[in-house]
Amino acid sequence: MSTAIAGVGVEGIAVRLAAVRQMIGSAAERAGRRPQDVTLIAVSKTFGVADIEAAIAAGVTDLGENRVQEAQDKLPMVSGTARWHLIGHLQRNKINKALELFDLIHGTDSLDLATAIGHRADRRGLPARTLLQVSVDGNVSQFGFEPDALRRSAKEIAVVPGLRLEGLMCIAPHVDDPEEARPAFQLLAGLAREMEETMRGSGHPWSHLSMGMSNDYPVAIEEGATLVRVGRAIFGERG
Description:
Helix 1 crosses helix 2. Helix 6 links the parallel strand 5 and strand 6. The protein has 239 residues and is an alpha/beta fold. The chain has an eight-stranded parallel sheet with strand order 7-6-5-4-3-2-1-8. Helix content is 41%, strand content 17%. It has one domain: Alpha-Beta Barrel (TIM Barrel). The N terminus is likely disordered. The chain has nine helices and eight strands.
């Protein structure tokens, strides 16, 4: 199992977590929102079980992993209870295992993948909770639907058996100034409002915006994020 060399250790996690929660509360208040309407996902990729259990002990309820295999190795060893989020790209050959391990799949990034996830979940008899990932910076190498492609595919995705569509996700461009990420978050929030109208009456609980990471999550909250994915600000630098 991989573990970070440069993390803050179990003693520092509670302190850093409290600071992140304070930042979440301040950002929500600036936007006229309630802090409790924003869920913090502590991203534990590359960190070990001791760090994860320290975060749970400090009040973390939601944890995020990027890779199915790493989660498969770690989750059975974690004694605390949490909801698990897959926030990285999902390969088709890992779908079945992802459905077993994760409560919410963030990175459903194509019609083909959405269809494959839905059909596997339908066979299991348990809908797959998922978000649709959008490419918000025009970078063709980034996973995700282009906004226009999502508009074209939305109604087709909405009727895939076995899917429970809960909103959108994006990875904003990495920038030095968090304000420079704001247009990406505004784009995703606007697209989510469009898709909510498209999904109306389809039975999907369209309610989440997963956006914002350690360097820009306060800006994401100001623009409507309901799920923020924060790793480094809680666990420290990865080795």
